[in-house]
Amino acid sequence: MTPRRRLQWYIVGIVITLALMYVISLAGFGLPGLIETGLLAMTPLALAAVGECLNEQAGTVNVGMEGIFLITAVLGVYWAEVFGSGLYGLLFGALMGALIGLAFGVICVYGKANQVIAGMGLNIFALGLGPFLLMSIWGFPGIHIFSQDLMFQPLRFNIWGGFFSISPVTISAIILALLAYLLLKRTLFGIRIRASGENPIAVDVAGVSVARIRVLMCVVGGALAGLGGAFMPLGWFGGVVKEISAGRGFIALAAVVFAGLNPILALVASFIFGFSEAVAFTFVVSPGVKEIIPFYFVQMMPYAVTLTILTAAIGGKRFPRALGKPYVRE
Amino acid sequence: MSTRLHGTIKPIAESSVAVVVGIVAGAFLMLAFGYDPIRAYVALFYGAFGSTSGILESLAFATPLMVTAVTFAVGVRAALFNIGAEGQMYLGAIGATIVGGAMFLPAGVHPIAATLFAMGLGALWALPAAVLKIWRGVHEVVSTIMLNWIAFWFVTYLVRTYFGEPGRAERALPALPTARYAVIGETLTTVILVVVVFCIAVTVILWRTGIGFELRLVGDNPEAARYAGASASKAILVSFLVGGLAAGLAGASQILGRPPSWTLYATLGNLLNLGFNGIGVALIGKNHPIGGVFAAFFYGGLLHGGRFMEYNVGVASELVQAINGIIVIALAMPEVIAIIRKRRES
Question: Which CATH architecture best describes the domain A47-313?
């Protein structure tokens, strides 16, 4: 697909989204509320997706973000309770994510692991570790509700004749997407990151360590996914369950593919996917709608939307040539 | 003969290294939470393999994993990461419920019809991922996961609205007595024979037929496959369909062949993660359907023994799942595995 046709697709997508928003607001669902929820749902997706963009630009695919979400959601709540502060929970979530990213990076770069298999291993590990931690820390299977004082409070603005709240984490996610874009396109280090994914030999010949760049990007990707994971209970749900991530790690991955590794487009895709989740949440509780569309079909919506949009918008995207391949010096 | 033997021993040795890594990592996790890993593992392995009933029960746990492992293995053979066994298995389970629980058929035909219908639904659910891959190049890791979640809610919907057992909202209609496989002992039924025959059949297809050769060629060397005129699209389609049949069989095995409930819980609790664990089992079995049978026996033992570990030592049985993940990560690293190879050469 040429860039011009791609641009047309984005315009079509944005128009459809806006039209959908308008119809929804006409139907009396309250657009500000929907956008609020959409931004909440966007946040973990966007954080993980931006991190994964950097990660993949450097040449490493991490399909284990689902697992990082799960582990850091549980550990974020744990540290929040230890320190008595939601902010510390978020920061430690990011730290835990960074450590997992570091381990993943070392395994993939120095261990020359098959990245998709290692990532799936991380997911399977987390499927067990999450419930294991819930049980071992709080002694209760599958769910933990913490004191609501620990919630990381959103900022509230008085607009649209009411309150509009947005979490500082959401704002950070948006800023981080912009920063990641600038880093990749406008800095020397960004060029090195992209070259590690595109032509690692050239980076090596220039005297820059491909391995170090890739591991560093895995750490950054892990930290962002970790922040997103800790955000889910601490900034959004107010509790942690063993299936808290619910496929969001893979939805973030879909956003990355959709965006062709462009952090800003990944942010846009995350908002679309997050918004569809918000619509689903709203449908579930709306009288008049919940009777017509069964709850179960509403629950499918974010996944169906992700798959549909990804199918429609895929193609014409170039991914780094050395993506997913361990770099071996000859 | 000696090379053939070597060809069997090497993968076993490699998998054993990874398994040891997983078990040691599990021990560290237990230590971190103040449990005694030795006592826990003794309870686990004795519970799993220390008695006839333990072994039978471990085999019962292994049965669905043998086939969900085939789903992943057949994918890898065609260079695909089909992680959709989970959702395809849900469809298989509801298929078995529809024919096995809601229809009346004569005793001999009933389990066959129910199993075949379940396998068909599993394959049907694998189809979108194959089509999207061939038609639009949608990566199967994303598409199969999305389909897994759609399947989860779709099957939950069917159980809750149409196929619930009257008076027991928490579960679906159980398989009728005519549709059930015969019990061998404990919760192991003759469905394991069907599963093993299926694994052998897939092995034969992969290594003894033209289409199997084509599939493996596309997986091993797409460039050469193109020159040889092998169709990548056909390989992808066949791989997904066989994988779907396998996952559907896994779902059926839990409904038609798993006492005492013979049913699907509305939370899908008795199926959850069997598909994902199949990935680990496939990798331990070196992506060979027969290797997967043995790997499944080992991992089924861990799952069954995990309950003893939880009961006797108090370690949450989910730890077994975490160990599986570590084994997979270890198996992803050829360098770690190569250590034993180097030692033998020197």
Answer: Orthogonal Bundle (1.10)
